[in-house]
Specification:
CATH architecture of the largest domain: 2-Layer Sandwich
Strand order of the largest sheet: 8-9-7-10-13-12-11
Number of helices: 10
Order of helices and strands: HEHEHEHEEHEHEHEHEEHEEEH
Number of domains: 2
Number of strands: 13
CATH superfamily of the largest domain: Dihydrodipicolinate Reductase, domain 2
Strand content: 15-25%
Structural class: alpha/beta
CATH class of the largest domain: Alpha Beta
CATH topology of the largest domain: Dihydrodipicolinate Reductase, domain 2
């Protein structure tokens, strides 16, 4: 058995006051972005493994149990395996995979949704939201919670994302010198309505039915635009009520903001928030047909930025420390 008591004593005595961070999966897209955000922080110490030890199970086990906070930037199965390696009860985990987003004992890491900020700060197991799910939930969860949308509602959603959301393999495909011409236009995927974000979209929003979900990857690097269209007769209220709900839900948030007017000359660009860690919520349309839109960076509030925000809450730092807003 791993001797976490001995290890914790050793590092607490030598590095008092520093929060020790280990990123398991630091070579992936999300892990690299988290490391970039944390490397300049003077309140943190990064536990790093060299290339030759990065996949060594015992080296990982040691690092996971030495950390105050472990970020898991791994596929689902590997994330579950990593959690099983942790025997030190003092270690807090922020898992960026899909593995634990609706699991018992895990806190869903979207602070802006009702009551979750305090839960995150007190939790040892935090599941970082999915990128598409972040936009959908920012739009829908407050409406269900305030009673403007019924839990029985059958919604639809489409979501545009830059190709960086597909990780290193997709980035390489899109940036290849002689790429497939089909990559030159937006491509819909998740065609079987079994996208891995659907479960958290339904459960966390408080819906009884998963939405009809149409994710689309487009030939630009980063940025996300999640859209939920509604007919007015689907609501307990009107567009003005929805705007007021968003004002009330996000008026104290330093990261998610409701925009009274997001119009960009009749357009809304999906890349408007690329390189940033905040999110913009907008309501457009007319009295009969209403369009809800969330715009953010799929690598920011949709991934690594959200993970750093959750870490800040855990350690009592300013919520936006190290974020690009």
């Amino acid at each position: 058995m791993y001797n976490y008591a001995q290890t914790t004593k050793k590092y607490t005595e030598s590095e008092a006051g520093m929060t020790k961070i280990f990123i398991d999966g630091s070579a992936g897209t999300t892990g690299l972005r988290i490391r970039e955000r944390l490397s300049a922080r003077r309140d943190l110490e990064l536990i790093e493994l060299g290339e030759e030890r990065r996949k060594d199970p015992e080296a990982r086990r040691d690092a996971l149990n030495r950390a105050d906070i472990a970020f898991l930037c791994l596929p689902d199965a590997a994330a579950k395996e990593a959690v099983g390696m942790i025997e030190n009860p003092a270690v807090a985990v922020i898992d960026t995979s899909t593995a634990h987003r609706t699991a018992n004992g895990w806190t869903y890491g979207f602070p802006e949704l009702g009551g979750r900020r305090a839960q995150i700060a007190a939790s040892k197991r935090i599941a970082n939201p999915g990128c598409h799910a972040s936009g959908f939930l920012a739009l829908v969860e407050p409406l269900v919670r305030y009673g403007a949308v019924s839990p029985q509602a059958k919604l639809s959603c489409f979501s545009l994302t830059g190709y960086s959301g597909g990780g290193k393999k997709m980035i390489a495909e899109y940036e290849a010198q002689e790429r497939d011409p089909l990559f030159d236009a937006p491509r819909m995927y998740g065609l079987g309505q079994e996208h891995k974000h659907l479960t958290e979209m339904r459960v966390v929003a408080g819906l009884e039915n998963s939405p009809v979900f149409c994710p689309v990857v487009a030939p630009y690097y980063a940025g996300m635009e999640v859209v939920v269209p509604l007919f007015a007769d689907m609501l307990n209220g009107d567009a003005e009520l929805l705007k007021q709900i968003y004002r009330d839900a996000y008026h104290t948030s330093p990261v998610v903001r409701f925009a009274e007017n997001a119009d960009e000359g009749g357009f809304l660009s999906a890349s408007a928030f690329a390189g940033r860690d905040d999110m913009q919520i907008a309501v457009t349309g007319n009295t009969e047909r209403i369009v809800l839109t969330a715009r953010f960076d799929n690598l920011g509030k949709g991934a690594s930025g959200a993970a750093v925000q959750n870490m800040n809450l855990l350690i009592g730092a300013a919520e936006t420390e190290g974020l690009a807003l």
